[in-house]
Write a structure and sequence with these properties.
Layout (H helix, E strand, L loop, with lengths): L3 E7 L4 E7 L14 H28 L12 E6 L3 E5 L2 E5 L2 E5 L22 H13 L6 H9 L8 H19 L8 E9 L3 E2 L5 E10 L4 E10 L3 H13 L8 E4 L5 H8 L4 E4 L1 H10 L3 H15 L4 H15 L4 H8 L2 H4 L10 H4 L3 H6 L10 E4 L2 H16 L11 H6 L3 E2 L2 E2 L6
């Protein structure tokens, strides 16, 4: 065994001497260096959990302080602690020990203590469960999860065996099936966003993807409405999705649909919800146009595209549109053609409240949720089964939905429902005949 020596200074004696340390410092075999900051955060988190549990227990004991047995003793008293257990969190495992109570009242109906923030048998924080779908859709295989979690949460991340992950996938699939059958008959959705998402690991069929529809209701809440597997450019795939929404109670046509122009969604929309107006997504359109331009002009062209959809009026947007055609049409006619073919549908948002423009110019609720896992260039070799792909995408969307912002300008929604005219985002006063 290697012996290391270090110099120590004695304050009392005012002398310095050498001491031997027989413990050899070995590198962490996982290759992950200890992080003092993470340890501080983890210790702080443990103390906060303990304080919260103690406060909740004190409240319970206080509520039953007047409950006495016949001999005058308190009915409810502390009774040690349950065995310590590790809870896997976003900062790694945190060891916690839950106090127990003893109910002295005779009979089978005994009181027990289970902290609301630490349910019985909880081993993983919600943030960790949200991480699993992301890893799957990134193309990480089940066998590599331990290594990935160790890198993300620290070398001591435990409790996510292949068997545990299999159980989670089964539970999420059951949740997805139940969610698919929910009734929409009591709801009114004014805006819907549609997109077809390919993941880095391919679905069971090469060109198959997940078709997603998000809606905003009459109160401004955004909600995942539909998610299933299909083909992005297929009108039939989208027709089935929209007809299923109608079957489950979405009887009134949405006021506006937002999505990429390449979708088979639009032909299906005109059949199923014929009065719904169309808005092409400016994020998708910008990417499509820039991809058809040489890199040397893409930065300048992107700024000119922004001038169109950032304009305060339709007239100003049309002027910027015409400028783009004149500036780039001679040399790069194919790029300009991609823009021109959807000219009217790109400017529909001017007929809706200006407060809603930031929400309805792009399919951002879907785009931002899948931004880090959707397929852009090269696909990985792995293949997702239908159940795994849909269950993971569903969990990812449910996690994102909890963080979605409500629509701005919610006071304008009743006006949109009643058909009030908006011009350049401003409500038009009705003049008497």
């Amino acid at each position: 065994m290697a012996v290391s020596k270090r110099r120590q200074f004695s304050v009392e004696k005012g002398i310095c001497h050498m001491s031997e340390d027989t413990i050899t410092k070995l590198p962490d075999p996982s290759g992950i260096s200890p992080d003092p900051l993470t340890e501080v955060i983890r210790n702080g988190a443990r103390k906060l959990i303990e304080q919260a549990i103690e406060a909740e227990l004190a409240g319970l004991l206080s509520a039953f302080a007047d409950h006495k047995l016949e001999d005058g003793r308190a009915r409810l008293v502390r009774h040690g602690h349950l065995p310590e257990r590790d809870i896997l969190t976003g900062v790694g495992p945190i060891a916690v020990s839950v106090p127990r109570v003893r109910d002295r009242k005779p009979g089978a109906d005994k009181l027990t203590f289970t902290p609301s923030i630490l349910p019985r048998y909880l081993r993983k924080a919600k943030s960790v469960e949200e991480l699993l779908p992301w890893l799957y859709l990134k193309g990480v295989s089940t066998g590599d999860f331990s290594e990935a979690l160790a890198a993300l949460l620290g070398p001591h991340a435990r409790g996510l065996s292949a068997k545990t992950i299999t159980r989670l996938k089964a539970a999420w699939w059951d949740e997805y099936l139940a969610w698919q059958k929910r009734d929409l008959g009591t709801r009114r959705f004014l805006y819907i966003w549609a997109d077809g998402v390919y993941f880095k690991p391919r679905m069971a069929e090469e060109k198959q993807c997940v078709l997603v529809i998000v809606g905003a209701d009459e109160y401004g809440h955004k909600e995942l409405l539909a998610m299933t597997d299909g083909f992005r450019e297929s009108t039939q795939s989208w027709r089935e999705v929209l007809l299923d929404l109608k079957r489950r109670g979405l009887k009134q046509d949405p006021k506006l649909a937002i999505g990429d122009g390449a979708l088979g969604f639009w032909a299906a929309l005109r059949e199923v919800f014929p009065t719904t107006r169309e808005q092409r997504c400016w994020v998708h359109k910008t990417m499509n146009v820039l991809n058809a331009l040489p890199k040397s002009v893409q930065t300048k062209a992107k700024a000119h595209l922004h001038d169109i959809w950032q304009a305060e009026t339709r007239a100003a947007a049309s002027a910027a549109f015409d400028f783009f055609i004149e500036a780039y049409g001679v040399k790069w006619d194919k790029a300009v053609a991609k823009l021109v073919k959807d000219r009217d549908a790109l400017l529909t948002f001017y007929d809706f409240p200006a407060e809603h423009w930031k929400h309805i110019r792009t399919s951002n609720p879907i785009e931002s949720t899948f931004a880090t896992v959707r397929h852009r260039t090269k696909r990985t070799k792995g293949c997702l089964s239908r159940e795994t792909g849909l269950a993971m995408a569903f969990r990812l969307m449910m996690s994102a939905q909890a963080k979605w912002r409500k629509l701005d300008g919610r006071n304008r929604l009743p006006e949109v429902i009643s058909g009030v005219e908006f011009r350049d985002g401003i409500r038009q006063l009705q003049t008497a005949a």
